Amino acid sequence: MNKEKTIELLNTLVMINNDRIEGYKTAGKNTKDRDLKTLFSKFKLTSKKCRRDLVSKIKKLGGKVAVGTKVPGLFFRVWSDVKSTLTVNDSKSILDLCEQGEEKVLETYRYAFDDASDHLTAGQQKMVKNQYSLIKAELGKIRLMRDNLVKASKNH
Fold it and tell me: Which of 3, 4, 14 is nearest to 127 (CA)?
């Protein structure tokens, strides 16, 4: 196992969580919908915990932890769209964009444990899969909330 590859892979996940934290911070500040604010706040906390766990593993390997939101185009572009959507405060559109962003996050996680798992120890693989499951469950909440909005608008 190549330690540098492991650190690089874990840092990719750190940065995707940084993207997620910044995105949900922006979304939470700019929506008036209380339920969305609460949801986005919970999602930020999930990513902060994921990041803490990843940082711990990187430090144990003697690696330098990545900072910023540099994952090229994965999630950040979606959040640019969210910012513009937030100006019209359309909850369904916001949730649609959140769904797109979460799908990109999950793609990155799937890559980590499907295509690059030979760079992770069994414990690291377990951590990555657990984080994937948490984020996937949050994607389910986004979809449910969006679907409920659609149903409610059809009933009016």
Answer: 14
